[in-house]
Write a structure and sequence with these properties.
mainly beta, 9-stranded parallel beta sheet
Amino acid sequence: MVAVKNFRVDSFVASLAIKAPCKVVTNTNLTLSGEQSVNGTAVTAGDRVLVKDQTDPIENGIYNVETSAWARAADFDGNRDVVRGTLVTIPATTGQDFFYQVTSSDPITIGTSAITFLLTNDPNVSHPITQLEITSGLTAGDITDSFEPGDVRRYGAVLDNSTDDHDAFQDAIDSGHKVWIPYTATGCRINSTLTLRSGLSMVGESLAMALNYHGVAATYLFDADEALITEGIHLDNFGIAPGVTGTNGIKFIECRAIHIPRLLIDGSSGGNKFAIGILVDDDGASAPQIGSAWNRFGFIITRYCTDAHIRLDTQGALPWANRQLVEYHYPEGGGIGMDVVSGATNDIRCDPQTCTTGVHLAADADNNVIRGFEEGCTNSITIDANAVQNEIRGNWDFATATDNGSETRWFTQDQVRSFAITDGSLRFEQTSGNVSVQIPTGFTGNMNFLVTDNQGTPVATQVLSFVGGVADPYITGANVRATAFFEVPSYTAAQLGDVANAVNTSDNKRAGVVVRDSDSNRLKIATGAADASTWIDVEAGTNVITPS
């Protein structure tokens, strides 16, 4: 029996293709020493362990557990023991065993080469062609039946970032099955546009698995058929990247019920960049043009797009042709982070970093809610004329905001900031808006800004000391949602009623001046021409005091 065991485990010929089983496979970096728990399984001296997740992949391989330092197994310690494609089996507790395949390039030198493994299928177990695949036009000759339906390798994907895997991916998309994209360190190469279909579910093993697009400039890696309404697409947990500059990522046109929980669009600061990361559109030349709506984008990271990271252009013919939910978008580097060209009632969380413009709301962008904060953008937010009733919430650099829209509502998350006294007037450091309060000339005191959260609940008060004597004492701003109020001077009713009193001089009593009647503890405002003004109770509209 000893000779047989040595032949099976130690022989070059018998174990190069398929290794003897290991008790367990790792799922994280280990200290390769002593008896311990591996992936939830206790291992003791003599057990074989497939080590595949070391921080230094040179350490990966098959080991025998020892009470001290582990040793490489005899069938995985020499340069003739392993090649690209070698399989290692892990017995399953129930059901089919697991097979891991070596994906490193030949030649492999133990102790020098980085060794990587990929979970694969037992090549002795076949998965015959399915009726869905037959319906899509595939034949048994088009598939490799050792892979399960939907796995892109079943349809011929090589995943080496050199071979064009377009046809394999398109066959997987058209197969009708859930598409599975396994991880490879190199990613894969796609040379032309992949067409999306209704009901597609495409899931990757890792966000680090990149689909590198080497298509023609201005084309998209993924695109929908403009002649159809595409519904119910689910894309999750993989990345896309430009193989050449000037291409685009994903175009959803006439699409409804799109769901992207996680996606990485990964351009390079010094290399290739997409022009547009994601476009949601409803204006195809041959499309029904009823709108793209009810789409949900979860955790989306976009890096280095030259035009727009995400562009929403969804002003469809029907009233529901809007309503995009962006739960979290992190655009970084260049272009417009979130570009709302048209569309209404979109709910967007966007934290742009170092973009040319963080958020842009164009003329047809109405009734949208934008949440988030920006850092390092040239322009934090730009709002075009005729963009109506949008809400901006969060922390933005008001000094770089441009608001030409109508009735834009600004909410700050923690404080009203970026204000200064300029040319004798108190102004916010973004585009000025309407006069909101007039301060009496010569007034000295504190002005308070009451800051509210998104529900209107007060959360903080910012106090600004104000020195009187300015020539043009008006407060202006860009519709920042904060309530300004004064510590106004107090006078008795007798003082307010005495025309000779100093409070009733022309400088102090021009229209709009506010004081407090200390007898009634009510606010009074001056109306009319200077010296002839009357004090009106602003809280009740009565109790008029006319100096005599």
